[in-house]
């Protein structure tokens, strides 16, 4: 293996910079986080990697998939291919006839 390839392999494996930490990608919108109906039954977690995890009642991860935000509009495509959308208005998510509010994890335990 050439010296150039050896250095490249060591960089990729982290051997040259073992204490380096990869930075998480910056979200492209301000809506990353947990969104919850007032009764707590439906919970949408919008992850910074463009995935979401929806829980319903006692059923954690009831639906999962990808989402894309354009302005204040959100489009969902779950892992089965089902699509839905919603709108963020005044820090409230209106989706599928539901109203979800941002859960502030520092005070809503």
UniProtKB/TrEMBL annotation:
InterPro entries: Atu4866-like_sf, Uncharacterised_Atu4866. It comes from the Bacteria. Pfam families: Atu4866. Keywords: Signal. Transmembrane segments: none annotated. Residues 1-23 form the signal peptide. This is Atu4866 domain-containing protein.
